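If your schedule permits, I should be very grateful for your opinion on a structural question. What I wish to show you is a protein chain and, alongside it, a tokenised description of its three-dimensional fold. Would you kindly read the sequence against the tokens and tell me how you understand this chain to fold? Here, with my thanks, is the record as I have it:

===
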Amino acid sequence: MIAILVLLAAAAGYTWWWLEAAGQVRLGIAQWADQRRATGWTVDYTLGVSGYPFSLTATIDQPRIVAESGKWRWQGPRITSHAAPWRLSQVTVEFPGTHVVAIPAAAPEMTAVAAKATGTAEVSVAGAIEHIAAEITGASLSTPEFGSFRADRLALRATEAPPDARPQAGSPTPPPGPTVVAEIERLVLPDAIRGALGQTVERASLNAQLTGRLPPGQPLKEAVVAWRDQGGTLEIRELSGIWGPLTAAAAGTLALDGNMQPQGALSARARGYNETIDALVNAGLANRRAGATVKVAFGVLGKQPQGGGPPEITVPVTVQNSWIYLGPVGLLPIPPLVWD
């Protein structure tokens, strides 16, 4: 009898706790929406919380958000988030159906659409996000200038550096920032952009870590300037891709120069380089004389990989003065970054 009473008391306590947690979910979302509305946003949604006893599930139907002054708009059929009651620090979010992001909201210049999107997040006891991951399938981005970009799959993972990896206060070493892994599969360029290496980028990926921290509460340009002045860099562990004849991978360090333009040094491995240089020259993206010089040099440097296949080269790549250099030869200009 006592055991039954203990079980009933435990069940009642757990039920009370679950209802309290569900109420906090409702309250938190409502407070966030009210805070946005107070600053001129439009926030519409219908919320339901379910999943008792083994899940805490929030379902938001017909969400619609319009930012202040119509800067952007997002809407979709539904958002569903799940968390186990015994592990509320890990949340899984699903975005079924087609979701639309328009910039600006009224007469969109850019519209992003996703057929399916999912994500997960892990939150520390203090409320800081320690890990976040997202995957989007059937993505498209439409622009009035170029048309529609499409991708079969986009994936992003970001993991915050652990506290014990950060330098002590007063250390001249910039603190490590998050590690970011991004992947894209079958990116199809719009017809308005005649890709020198074809209209489809089969695969591209990035594995990088930011060093240094952006100061909070500052406009973007001022925050980035402070980050640069504190020695902030982007450490590229691997940047790789397959586009037309080119298969390449690179690693190195990027930063910003005194004019807030990219600079850095990397080491790159590439196959299909002769066909790539020809394509860039024919498209008018590379100087013909520089292309011929690079091809001669690559012919000397190229080595047959073990196991066969096309020759492969390893070359230094530098980014400076708004140009990409292969060794000493300037190959491609870089469009300037505009911060204002």
Q: What stands out?
A: The chain has a mean pLDDT of 86.
